[in-house]
């Protein structure tokens, strides 16, 4: 196994090798030499040596594409690079030996080396031979590679010249952004196929999440919406370990995110007991006093058939405790009506529970089969007309609760974030409202100086079932 020619993203074409791979030894890895890509003045430059199979080559392409998107130039020689990534192979002992040789060569010629790839799965093996490498990451660990590059050679993107803006491609307005902290889910809810589609929980390192948050805020983001399949479980797969001074636990991550200078909103928080540790952070103002918790139902038998925790009464106690700590907390949840086997008694329990819980924001789904879900095989499926009737009854109660809660806000003052402004007024959200799914606060007088992303204080003057109206308060 010999080193490939240095390889840049397909979109960019190829550039000359750092070290020439003898084509007579490995013609399958040989690449034509193409002139180096132009770079602008002051652009940080990174080099790469890529070893191994085509899968490793694809990994190298992805890393280099990300680097190009973040404003890095790609260097074709050791001397022109501010750091070098060595993408290693560890399939055979001979491949390991050559990977170590390549790392040694890069250290000799450049001195600032980041190791990734298959051999990176054995970090002690690498650092035992080359203790001066800057970082060691395993295969497919793109975030960790980029983190190491950022730490060694900070990016300096020029949005008018480089491939992408520093935040990458965003499908949300400039002033708010979704921040994914993990992928997959370890739960086995019978109605859900997400674990089959996305696999088990895989959490991002806390320092990587925090660095992304800092970059987003530096680029103008005012609100971070933390998302995952199970936010409460964040870091469980990492055994809540600490890297670079940041612990992979949702409470620690929320506290860290609270320091970046943006609104932080937590979504999809499964009701584990440790959720109560998040609420003091909300009372302190570090994160928004907003919890999005998918309770799904309230009757213990229905919850058991869903394969979810069946402790609705204890949940009411938890809600009371959360409100005692942070009286302004907003609770959002989603529910399913018409789940297989749901009786009139079970549904009535759900309505009674909602009366007692007095949740602020509520969504409801009529149950339907999903291909591959285990709930499809449950007995006693509920007729469609019954589902529809229960949905109507549930939403009527939820709407009445929302209307009363919003009416109680009239006359009070609150901060809002401006989402859009047109000739008729400004559409805003309070801290109690997530974009797309909750209500709005409308300003139809005194909005002329407002712009998306502004955070202003308003006096609430009017309320409906789901929305508010108000006027800015002069500072």
From TrEMBL:
Annotated Radical SAM core domain residues: 171-404
GO terms for cellular component: cytosol; ribosome
Keyword set includes Phosphoprotein: no
Domain of life: Bacteria
EC number(s) stated in the UniProt entry for this protein: 2.8.4.4
TRAM domain ranges (all copies): 407-474
Pfam families named in the record: Radical_SAM, TRAM_2, UPF0004
Subcellular location, record wording: Cytoplasm
InterPro entries assigned to the protein according to its UniProt record, in alphabetical order: Elp3/MiaA/NifB-like_rSAM, Methylthiotransferase, Methylthiotransferase_N, Methylthiotransferase_N_sf, NA-bd_OB-fold, Ribosomal_uS12_MeSTrfase_RimO, rSAM, rSAM_horseshoe
Cofactor comment: Binds 2 [4Fe-4S] clusters. One cluster is coordinated with 3 cysteines and an exchangeable S-adenosyl-L-methionine.
Binding site for [4Fe-4S] cluster 1: 53, 89, 118
Reactions catalysed: L-aspartate(89)-[ribosomal protein uS12]-hydrogen + (sulfur carrier)-SH + AH2 + 2 S-adenosyl-L-methionine = 3-methylsulfanyl-L-aspartate(89)-[ribosomal protein uS12]-hydrogen + (sulfur carrier)-H + 5'-deoxyadenosine + L-methionine + A + S-adenosyl-L-homocysteine + 2 H(+)
Entry keywords, A to Z: 4Fe-4S, Cytoplasm, Iron, Iron-sulfur, Metal-binding, Ribonucleoprotein, Ribosomal protein, S-adenosyl-L-methionine, Transferase
PANTHER family for this protein: RIBOSOMAL PROTEIN S12 METHYLTHIOTRANSFERASE RIMO, RIBOSOMAL PROTEIN US12 METHYLTHIOTRANSFERASE RIMO
Similarity section: Belongs to the methylthiotransferase family. RimO subfamily.
HAMAP family for the chain: MTTase_RimO
Protein's UniProt name: Ribosomal protein uS12 methylthiotransferase RimO
Species of provenance: Albidovulum aquaemixtae
Protein's gene: rimO
């Amino acid at each position: 196994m010999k080193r490939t020619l240095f390889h840049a993203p397909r979109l960019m074409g190829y550039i000359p090798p750092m070290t020439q791979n003898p084509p007579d030894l490995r013609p399958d890895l040989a690449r034509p030499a193409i002139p180096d890509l132009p770079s602008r003045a002051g652009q940080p430059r990174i080099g790469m040596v890529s070893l191994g199979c085509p899968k490793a080559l694809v990994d190298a392409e992805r890393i280099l594409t990300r680097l190009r998107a973040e404003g890095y130039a790609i260097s074709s020689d050791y001397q022109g690079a501010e750091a070098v990534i060595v993408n290693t192979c560890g399939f055979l002992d001979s491949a390991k030996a050559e990977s170590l040789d390549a790392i040694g060569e890069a250290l000799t010629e450049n001195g600032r080396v980041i190791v990734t790839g298959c051999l990176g799965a054995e970090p002690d093996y690498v650092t035992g031979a080359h203790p001066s490498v800057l970082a060691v990451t395993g295969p497919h660990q793109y975030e960790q590679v980029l983190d190491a590059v950022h730490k060694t050679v900070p990016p300096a993107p020029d949005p008018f010249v480089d491939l992408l803006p520093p935040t990458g491609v965003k499908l949300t307005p400039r002033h708010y952004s979704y921040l994914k902290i993990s992928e997959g889910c370890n739960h086995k809810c019978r109605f859900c196929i997400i674990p089959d589609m996305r696999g088990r929980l895989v959490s991002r390192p806390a320092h990587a999440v925090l660095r992304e948050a800092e970059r987003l805020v530096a680029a103008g983001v005012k609100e971070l919406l933390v998302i995952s399949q199970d936010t409460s479980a964040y870091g469980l797969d990492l055994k809540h370990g600490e890297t670079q001074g940041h612990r992979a636990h949702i409470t620690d991550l929320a506290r860290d995110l609270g320091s970046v200078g943006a609104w932080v909103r937590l979504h999809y928080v499964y009701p584990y007991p440790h959720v109560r540790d998040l609420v003091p952070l909300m009372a302190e103002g570090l994160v928004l006093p907003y919890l999005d918790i998918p309770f799904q139902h309230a009757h213990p038998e229905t919850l058991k058939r869903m394969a979810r925790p069946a402790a609705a009464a204890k949940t009411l106690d938890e809600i009371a405790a959360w409100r005692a700590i942070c009286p302004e907390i907003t609770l959002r949840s989603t529910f399913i009506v018409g789940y297989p086997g749901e009786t009139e008694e079970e549904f009535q329990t759900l309505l009674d529970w909602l009366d007692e819980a007095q949740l602020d924001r509520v969504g409801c789904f009529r149950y339907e089969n999903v291909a591959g879900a285990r709930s499809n095989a449950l007995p006693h499926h509920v007729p469609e007309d019954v589902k529809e009737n229960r949905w109507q009854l549930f939403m009527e109660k939820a709407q009445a609760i929302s209307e009363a809660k919003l009416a109680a806000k009239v006359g009070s003052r609150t901060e809002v974030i401006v989402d859009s402004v047109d000739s008729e007024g400004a559409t805003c959200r309070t801290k109690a409202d997530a974009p797309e799914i909750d209500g709005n606060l409308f300003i139809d007088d005194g909005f002329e100086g407002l712009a998306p992303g502004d955070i202003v204080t308003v006096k609430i003057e009017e309320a409906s079932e789901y929305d508010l109206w108000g006027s800015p308060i002069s500072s």
